[in-house]
Structures are given as structure tokens and as C-alpha cells.
Amino acid sequence: MPKSRPPQALPRRPRRQVLTAGTLLFRIHAAAREATAFNPVPADCLYGGGRFDATRCDPYGYLYAGLSVEAAVCETLLRSVPFEPSAAPRLLPRRTVRGRRLSVLRLARDVEVVPLVSGRDLAAVAQDAWLVQAEAADYPYTRDWGHWIRARTGPAAQGFLWPSKREPADRALVLFSDRCPADALRDAGVPPLDLDTPEGESWLNTILEGYHAAVAPAP
């Protein structure tokens, strides 16, 4: 149940899904961090942070990505930008793209994840769509549930996979550094794109147009 404490045990054995070697991953990340580098900084237990970040209660490196470029954009930049009552295009604050980069990665090994996609997937972990669709205010709870799922699915579960909140036709994922081999990810050979450059902003606005959104104009 949303915001409740997890039960003692999983009600069912969660399904596993293999992402095969060669799968492309699209990542929007801080340009100061290497494309294949996991974030080593635990989120606060209560404030800030992402849906399935580590905390001091369960420290691990984490890496978010999308199985499409649209999922990466929507999950990283657009997930908390609401529609305007006037139906005007949603404006993405320029600070959200400052220092951000798009990189394309390739899985060098098969990776096994716990899918949180269907109602059956979620029921197996005693949850519903709230777990993967909750807004940022609920992330302290989703992190706690993520830690609980990690603890009960064991080291073979190398990450989670779920529908992107703003592009549910595509998938977002998180991978865990303590469960993925060091060589699981490699650069796909596609030049990275800095989103705070004129070229990057133009490209990003092309993607955002389909979601009735745009980067806010420069002051």
C-alpha cells in the first residue's frame, strides 16, 4: 500500500527480466560525471533525492537511464513539470539543464532486473502503480520500498525497470553498482551532447515539443 511500511516478506516471487548485452541505454547526467559512472552519493533519507536512490540505510552506487531517449528526457527532466491550466506549453527551467549531458551507453553484459511494469509485477512486491508513478514528495517512501525489494530479491537483482512517468510507453531503469560487474557498461560510441549548449538546447526542444514542453527562454 502507498506510504505504508513494507511487510515482512514478499507475497510472491518477483519476475526477473534480462536486458541482453548490446542493449542501448540513454542517460542524462551531470557532465562532470563519466557516462558509465554510478552516482556514489547517498540521498538523504527524507529530503531530496530520486525514486530509488541509495541512502545511509542502504548504501550503493546507482545509475538511472532510459531504454529510449524519450524515456531519459521525460524521466530525468520532465517528470515533475505539470501542465499549465491555460494549456500553454510547459516550460522547463533552464537551471534543470545546466551542466547536463546526454550520453548513449551499451550493455557489455547481460543484466538481470526486477520489472515493476505490470500489475502482477507490482503485486509481487506488495505494491501498485504508486511505487513507480509517485511524485517527488513521496520519494522518501519509494526509496524505503526500493531498499526492501533489494533486500528480498538478493544480489541477482541488479536493478529495477519501470514505465517512465511522463512517457509510459517507454521504460526507465536504475542499476546498482554493488550488483553489476565493473565492466557491465561501456560507451556506445555516440558523441555526448551537452544540453546547455545551443546545439543541445535545440535538440532537446525538438524532443520536448512532442510533450507540449520547451526549455524556458533565456532571460
TrEMBL record:
Residues 42-188 form the RES domain. It comes from Streptomyces boetiae. This is RES family NAD+ phosphorylase. InterPro entries: RES_dom. It comes from the Bacteria.
